[in-house]
């Protein structure tokens, strides 16, 4: 296996700095370190609105405070994961993201968590969402393997991330039926309800109040997949959760799928849009949260970020992605206050013996899946990378656009060019033999091909969005080219299908259903005439690789001018 899912480009600091354990008592302000997030998208015109107010919390069983903890310093350990993304098996030893190479796997997570729990009675194992989507295990078995493994591994509570909605609520509901622990959904409601608004769990004799927050879903989740679920403002909901839990728990922990703002690498300088609510913002606006277990942005924060709000301080930690590391936050709690803390990210290397029961659970699924995905379908003469060059053109994205266009033309020969969204491919295809497995890791989402029709200003808007200025989106084009002037923020010399752009002509464009529904900034697309198909974009890629046979990375479709 030579290429697996990858959401972040790289670390903003050296691994030794990122992975060193952090400890302290309140008073200092440790720095946060992280890696960039590639999941942020601008809202489409048909985005999901934020509901007014806050949802009803109901009442979970009230646990009386243990008299033994009054006035005493009590240890508490929080074990945490986030953004595991169906990483059932470890990353391969030759994985190009060296921080994660050879690490991870749910059997190792279970093994290490059980070992730590045996050493301390005051421990909980928690997950902050996005445990689904990203490997063929999810594509083949729709979350069954992941949730069965989470159940068997002993996760004490989980929440829901944006990628849990990728195949819609009914499939999510079915997958979660394999997990019997608390499913915390504080700022999202379902009809009928799914999970619970909060929980108070005992870790030894410490009452740990848990609530969760999901990032703004508009632009990340399409309305058809969100269905009747309702989204609520995370700041307002956090305020209500703190008010509720401060009366029922000794410590308040937020399982967040909102995300911190990590430092961005030189390859991705734009960063987040300024209006984005982050875990830092929540900690500043909502005093009373003791710990935020941060997910969504795939950041690695081993030295806790400490946010002060009034007289209260909040610790924020984050474990990276793919389950390569198990977060371990050791606390000393006294009278509802965190007195001391020490955090570490435990690398789940081959030195961690996998849990035999998890391996036994996964083995038949893996065997069935491998009968399909291990077949070779072509050869790559060079690496197909997500981003390359000063203009951020991507050979991997160009390949996706080419294969999508080829599939569309089989259905309608009049389709003239294609666009592929930057966040659709998730993993490099590296030089050498290409397998069906590589196609699954490159395109983990079950996006379908859509043909839309556009002309004039609308088409120019699509191409301008394809090179959007606000965040340097790296969407790619097939059978088209143009000149880009970064300083003037203009595009010119548009050529489509070998001919100069004709503003009076209606063009048929091959896209995926995510773009067609307005995702990733393409708010001008949902109103266009469209032809839906049942062709998966991944199947189009597989067919294209089989047809071409030997593939060469291609860039140069965008010419930089004015510099």
Largest sheet features = 7 strands, mixed
CATH topology of the largest domain: Purple Acid Phosphatase, chain A, domain 2
What would CATH call the class of the largest domain? Alpha Beta
- CATH homologous superfamily placement of the largest domain: Metallo-dependent phosphatases
Q: Total domains, how many?
A: 2
Overall morphology:
globular
Range of strand content: 25-35%
Compute the number of helices. Answer: 14
How many individual β-strands?
28
CATH architecture of the largest domain: 4-Layer Sandwich
Strand order of the largest sheet: 1-16-15-3-4-5-6
Mean pLDDT figure: 86
Give the low-confidence spans: 1-21, 25-45, 263-274
The radius of gyration over CA amounts to 24 Å
Alpha-beta classification: alpha/beta
Distance between the termini: 42 Å
What would you note in describing this structure?
- This protein is α/β, with parallel strands linked by helices and 563 residues long.
- It has 2 domains: 20-368, 4-Layer Sandwich (Purple Acid Phosphatase, chain A, domain 2), CATH 3.60.21; 388-560, 5'-Nucleotidase, C-terminal domain (5'-nucleotidase,  domain 2), CATH 3.90.780.10.
- The strands form 6 sheets. It has a 7-stranded mixed sheet with strand order 1-16-15-3-4-5-6, with helices on one face. A 6-stranded mixed sheet has the order 8-9-11-12-14-13, with helices on one face.
- Helix 2 (106-119) packs parallel to helix 4, helix 4 runs antiparallel to helix 9 and helix 11 crosses helix 14.
- It is globular, with a radius of gyration of 24 Å.
- The two termini are 42 Å apart.
- Mean pLDDT is 86; it is low at 1-21, 25-45 and 263-274.
């Amino acid at each position: 296996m030579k290429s697996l899912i990858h959401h972040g480009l790289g670390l903003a600091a050296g691994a030794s700095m990122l992975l060193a354990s952090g400890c302290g008592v309140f008073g200092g302000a440790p720095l946060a370190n992280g890696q960039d997030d590639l999941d942020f998208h601008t809202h489409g015109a048909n985005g999901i609105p934020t509901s007014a107010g806050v949802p009803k919390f109901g009442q979970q069983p009230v646990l009386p405070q243990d008299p033994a903890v009054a006035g005493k310093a009590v240890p508490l350990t929080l074990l945490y994961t986030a953004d595991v993304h169906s990483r059932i098996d470890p990353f391969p030893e030759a994985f190009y993201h060296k921080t994660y190479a050879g690490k991870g796997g749910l059997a190792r997570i279970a093994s290490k968590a059980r070992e730590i729990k045996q050493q301390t009675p005051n421990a909980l194992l928690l997950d902050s969402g996005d445990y689904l989507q990203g490997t063929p295990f999810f594509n083949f078995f729709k979350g069954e393997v992941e949730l069965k493994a989470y159940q068997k591994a002993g996760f004490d509570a989980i929440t829901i991330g944006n990628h849990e909605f990728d195949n819609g609520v009914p499939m999510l509901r079915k997958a979660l039926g394999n997990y019997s622990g608390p499913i915390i959904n504080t700022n999202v409601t379902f009809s009928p309800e799914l999970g619970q608004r909060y929980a108070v769990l005992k870790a030894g004799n410490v009452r740990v109040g848990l609530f969760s927050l999901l990032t703004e879903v508009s632009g990340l989740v399409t309305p058809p997949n969100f269905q009747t679920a309702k989204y609520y403002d995370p700041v307002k909901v956090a305020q209500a959760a703190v008010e509720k839990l401060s009366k029922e728990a000794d410590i308040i922990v937020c399982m967040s799928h909102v995300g911190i703002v990590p430092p961005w690498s030189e390859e991705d300088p734009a960063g987040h849009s300024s209006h984005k609510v982050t875990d830092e913002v929540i900690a500043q606006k909502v005093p009373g949260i003791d710990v935020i277990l941060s997910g969504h942005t795939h950041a690695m924060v081993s030295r806790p970020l400490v946010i002060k709000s009034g007289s209260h301080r909040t610790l924020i930690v984050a474990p990276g992605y793919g389950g390569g590391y198990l977060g371990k936050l050791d606390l000393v709690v006294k009278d509802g206050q965190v007195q001391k803390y020490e955090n570490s990210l435990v690398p789940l290397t081959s030195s961690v013996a996998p849990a035999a029961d998890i391996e036994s659970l996964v083995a038949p699924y893996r065997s069935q899946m491998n009968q399909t995905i291990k077949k070779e379908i072509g050869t790559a003469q060079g690496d197909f990378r997500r981003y390359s060059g000063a203009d951020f053109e991507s050979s991997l994205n160009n390949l996706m656009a080419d294969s999508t266009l080829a599939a569309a033309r089989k259905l309608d020969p009049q389709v003239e060019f294609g666009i592929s969204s930057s966040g659709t491919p998730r993993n490099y295809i590296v030089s050498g033999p290409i397998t069906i497995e590589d196609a699954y890791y490159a395109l983990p989402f079950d996006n379908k091909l859509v043909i839309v029709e556009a002309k004039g200003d609308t088409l120019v808007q699509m191409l301008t969005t394809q090179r959007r200025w606000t965040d340097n989106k790296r969407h790619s084009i097939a059978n088209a080219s143009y000149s880009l002037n970064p300083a003037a923020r203009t595009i010119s010399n548009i050529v489509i299908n070998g001919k100069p752009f004709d503003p009076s002509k209606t063009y048929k464009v091959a896209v995926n259903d995510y773009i067609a529904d307005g995702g990733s900034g393409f708010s001008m697309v949902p109103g266009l005439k469209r032809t839906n198909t049942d062709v998966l974009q991944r199947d189009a890629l597989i067919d294209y690789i089989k047809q071409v046979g030997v593939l060469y990375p291609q860039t140069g479709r965008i010419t930089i001018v004015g510099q």
